[in-house]
Amino acid sequence: MRLSVRSLTSLFLLCWITPSLVGDSVQWQSLFNGKDLSGWKANILPESFSVENGVIKAHCKAPDLRKSHLFFVGENKEDFVTFRNFELELFARGEPNSNSGIFFHTDMTPRDDKEHLRNGYEVQLIDGENPKAKTGSLYSVIELENSSVDETEWFKIRIKVVDKQIEVFLNEQRVVDYTEPLNPKRTPERTGRLLNPEGGAIALQAHDPESVYYFRDIRIRKLD
After folding, report:
1. pLDDT one-digit tens code per residue, 131-180
2. Average pLDDT for residues 56-63, to the nearest whole number?
3. In whole angstroms, what is the distance from residue 67 CA to residue 19 CA?
4. Which domains does the chain have, with CATH numbers?
5. pLDDT for residue 41
6. What is the pTM of this model?
7. What count of Cα atoms within 13 Å lies in the side-chain half-sphere of residue 148?
8. Percentage of residues of the chain with pLDDT beyond 90
């Protein structure tokens, strides 16, 4: 009888856990097919983004230092896809001394002639000795003094947004846990660095002629 109870218990747990795991995997949506930029659109300077050896290459060659951003537009091909509560996972790698970023809750509105994005948050990606905001920083909000990764090697980034909470993980180590307050204080040029109640776009940044970043295995799942 003791063996039978254990067997029944194990069977019950297996039946209870398995659908949850299957459901979890189904929720993830791949954003990059590894072949071309289908489902993505640059706001300016589309030549800043290409696919090489199955990964997205971000390299903005604009001599006037304008930034280009690659937005996920899905099947719309024109307007970006909006995400509110979500988990975003991807792998990134940069050439030495390169700068880039991952934007969320953003849109295509620029705030200056350099095409910096006015709205939303940026997770900083940067390699070098001098930057005050290291890789994983929630730029201009939570700035990390040290990087926990070697940016010239592939590393995993996970960004989780649930209501007002933002978490950033590098290789599954949480480096940012930020809850946006009721009345956040921002510098004058960063007044749009806020969560949008309606959600916003996901975008990758091509920063400058000296910076080259690569992205692969991009996927997301909605949490609402």
Report:
1. 889 999 999 999 999 999 999 999 999 999 999 999 999 999 999 999 99
2. 96
3. 44
4. 30-222 (2.60.120.560)
5. 96
6. 0.87
7. 15
8. 83
The amino acid present at 79, given as its one-letter code, is D
Q: Which residue has the tokens 């994983």?
A: 136
Phi, psi of 124 (to 5 degrees): -70, 140
Q: What is the 3-state secondary structure (H, E, C) of the chain?
A: CHHHHHHHHHHHHHHHHHHHHHHHHHHCEECCCCCCCCCEEECCCHHHEEEECCEEEECCCCCCCCCEEEEECCCCCCCCCCECCEEEEEEEEECCCCEEEEEEEECCCECCCCCCECCCEEEEEECCCCCCCCCCCECCCECCCCCCCCCCCCEEEEEEEECCEEEEEECCEEEEEEECCCCCCCCHHHCCCCCCCCCEEEEEEECCCCCCEEEEEEEEEECC
